[in-house]
Amino acid sequence: MNMNQLKIELLQGIINCNNEELLKEVEGILKSFPSEVKEAPQYYSKEEDISNLTENQIMILEKRYQSYLKGGSKAETWENVIAEIRKEHGF
Q1: Cα–Cα–Cα angle for 76, 80, 86, nearest 5°?
Q2: Tens digit of each residue's pLDDT (9 = 90 or more) over 2-20
Q3: Are the C-beta atoms of 87 and 80 separated by less than 8 Å?
Q4: Whole-angstrom Cα distance, residue 4 to residue 29?
Q5: Residue 76: how many CA atoms within 13 Å on its side-chain side?
Q6: Residue by residue, what is the 3-state secondary structure of the chain?
Q7: By the 8 A CB rule, do 74 and 81 touch?
Q8: Verdict on whether the full-model pTM lies above 0.90
Q9: Where are the domains of the chain?
Q10: In the chain, what percentage of residues exceed pLDDT 70?
C-alpha cells in the first residue's frame, strides 16, 4: 500500500468513526506533527488572483453592480429564475 492509499483509508476510518474520544486522540497526534505542506505561497495569495475576465468585462460588471447598489437595476432570486425558465421552456 502506498502513502496515498493509506491516507484515503485513514480518512475513511475517521469519517466512519463515532467515538469522540478516539477522534480527539487522533486530532492530538496530528497536531503534534508540524505541517509538511511545501507548496508555493502564490497558490494561496489573494494578490495573485488571476481572472479569466477581460478588463472590459470587469468594468461592465462593476457598472452593473454599482447600479444595483443604487437601486437602478432589478435582481431576482435563483428560485425565481429557475421557476421562470421552467414556465417558459417546460423543464
Answers
A1: 135
A2: 888 998 999 999 999 999 9
A3: no
A4: 19
A5: 8
A6: CCHHHHHHHHHHHHHHCCCHHHHHHHHHHHHCCCCCCCCCHHHCCHHHCCCCCCHHHHHHHHHHHHHHHCCCCCCCCHHHHHHHHHHHHCC
A7: no
A8: no
A9: 1-34, 51-89
A10: 84
